[in-house]
Amino acid sequence: MKKILITGGAGFIGAHLARELVTHGYAVRALDNLSPQVHGAGAREERRRPSYLDDAVELQVGDVRDPDAVRRALDGVDAVYHLAAIVGVGQSMYQIAEYTSVNNLGTAVLLEEMVKRRSLTRLVVASSMSVYGEGYFTDAGGRLVSGVERTMEQLAGSQWEMRGEDGGTLTPIPTGEDKTPSLASVYALSKYDQERLCLVTMRAYGRSAVALRLFNTYGLDQALSNPYTGVLAIFASRLVNGKPPLINEDGLQRRDFVSVRDVARAFVLALEVPGADGQVFNIGSGRVYSVLDVARLMAEMVSGGRIKPEVTGKYRMGDIRHCFPDISRAEKLLGYRPEVTLEAGLSELCDWLRGQVAVDRVEEARAELAARGLAL
After folding, report:
1. Measured distance CA(368)–CA(87) in Å, rounded
2. What is the dihedral sign for C-alpha 316, 318, 324, 327?
3. Which 8-state DSSP code applies to residue 58?
4. Does 81 participate in catalysis according to the annotation?
5. Which of 132, 136, 187, 192 is catalytic?
6. Using CA of residue 17, residue 18, residue 20, residue 21, what is the dihedral sign?
7. Buried b (16+ CB within 10 A) or exposed e, 91-118
8. CA 243 from centroid of its chain's CA atoms
9. Which residues lie across from 124 on neighbouring strands?
10. Residue 138: which of 111, 160, 106, 163 has the closest Cα?
11. Which residues lie closer than 8 Å to 339 by C-beta, 6 or more apart?
């Protein structure tokens, strides 16, 4: 039996991955700092083990930036999943030092300790769709367009769609891993640094590394009281409190929403498939929806139609218009096949929500961004 370390293993995705690994016969250890923003006030001091973390998982409470904690976590381990990170586009734009410290320095500390151990030959790192910025587009002539951004004048004038050099509206298409990164936030920059640090360092030492660029991941056990987490968890927090989901711009932004159960399976494949070494993979559902349509579906499931999403017509710095993945590389090289439809995944999520309590901090977070000039 192989022993696996998951940094950030008590978090939402980490706990689902841990459960999946246990079912595959692995022994699993989690290193997690039990961040109050994710796990609630006092969780770290009380070393409060999350109730959703599989009983078979060994939890070590510690910070990935602490070499001693990392050394203890790596003892007897055969492979590592690196998921430890602070998540959030908006917050990253003003907690710059903290995001850079946890995401960048934490990764560097982990790698320095890993390369000292010759037995540690495999690392899988969680990257993010945020590294792409805007996705791929085509113009009216069918030509591929990449690297476009909206100007502040466009945003101030509520001109939400992407436009080409001729002023015409561009059509979004699936984005492949070959797209040049466009890092629109401190969070995106830090995730790209995590990805590259892992791939470059492990290759230099003759070890194996794989990066998974995760798209909008949702599912049971998300941190509902964290206003900087995934968009569906933010919508859920509002709905649990009888409030409408708040949607930026006009709600027609197009995204891919992938079940955490599919993401966990993809992580296991990335560890086990030999041909994955050195590769970067998009992990999504392969289906595309507007944010407004998903918010409406969630509101209908939770409230029976009593609550309607609210389109704010506002903009947040670092947000992008359209980005959804081409997952053909993961399908071909990993054998990845998403199994959970959005309808089935949201139904499961909304059933779980009925027994949950969430502190709605969404408006507080929006006010914080606006006060700093990071939201229109």
Report:
1. 17
2. negative
3. E
4. no
5. 187
6. positive
7. bbbbbeeebbebbbebbebbbebbeeee
8. 24
9. 81, 210
10. 163
11. 259, 261, 262, 265
pLDDT by residue (tens digit) across 221-261? Answer: 998 877 777 889 889 889 989 999 999 999 999 999 999 99
Among the listed residues 262, 256, 6, 225, the one whose alpha carbon sits nearest the alpha carbon of residue 110? 6
pTM for the whole thing? 0.95
Mean pLDDT along residues 148-168: 91
Residue position matching structure tokens 């995590």: 194
Q: What is the pLDDT of residue 216?
A: 96
Identify whether the C-beta of residue 121 lies closer than 8 Å to the C-beta of residue 80: no
Domain 3-371 homologous superfamily, CATH? NAD(P)-binding Rossmann-like Domain (3.40.50.720)
- Alpha-carbon distance of 119 to 203, in angstroms, equals 15
Rounded alpha-carbon distances, angstroms, from residue 311 to 197, 236, 369? 39, 16, 18
